[in-house]
Every structure is written in structure tokens, then in C-alpha cells.
Amino acid sequence: MPSTKEDFxxxxxxxxxxxxxxxxxxxxxxxxxxxxxxxxxxKELVVHANEEIAHAVLVATAISDLGGVPxxxxxxxxxxxxxxxxLEQDLEGEEIAIKLYKELxxxxxxxxxxxxxxxMEDILxxxxxxxxxxxxxxxx
Length: 140
Ligand SMILES: [Fe+2]
Ligand SMILES: [Fe+2]
Fold this sequence. Notes:
The chain is mainly α. Helix content is 77%, strand content 0%.
């Protein structure tokens, strides 16, 4: 069964909750991550945090344009005492985001919302870059 506009807005709001959460998580992780081998990724996590905020603004605008109300709920955040574990947590967040944006692109296509689809594709590309940055740092 094809998705309704309501399904679309609900899933966009779920993506928005994850964007808020990932921004918060990246700010915390970039501040506390330690170890010489994580020096460059620590700075990169600040870049990610700012990009997640930019994604949140884009998603909130798309929701509003579609006639929905953008949420202020925040999805689950994870912290750790261990630098490698933090990066694993960040990687998990990126995998969730990538899966969600792929689903949103399909729904946008079904709904003939081509402008929103384009925005989702641009965000997806950045999430894939984030995943690559973290995987490189983890030596994966
Ligand atoms: Fe994002
Ligand atoms: Fe991301």
C-alpha cells in the first residue's frame, strides 16, 4: 500500500528526532574524546554536529511546507568513557540516518514531492560522508 502524506510527515519527524539527537551526541563526543589517534576525528565530529543541525533545519522546513508540525522530541543519545565505543555509537547513528533517508526518498517519489526528494538525497550524501569519516577513523 502506498504511503500517505501523514506517513510521510511522521517519518520526516522521526528523522528530525534523530537529527537533534545526533547533533547533541556529536557535540558531547567531540568534547570528551581522547587519544592522539582520534585528534583529527575529534575536529571532524564538530563539523558533523553542525551539519546535523543544518539537516534538522531542512527537515523541519520540509515538514512545515507539507502542512505538518515539526517535532521538538529528541531520539536516543549514547555516551561512553571509551573513545572507540563513542565512534561505534556515532556509526550506529549514521546507519540509522542512512536507512531513514533512503526510505524517505522512496516515499517522496511516491508522493511526487520532488523538491523534498532532492533535499533528502542531499542529506543522504552527507550522512554517507559522515559514515565514511567514522569508518576511516575506526580503521574499517
Ligand atoms: Fe543528519
Ligand atoms: Fe550524520
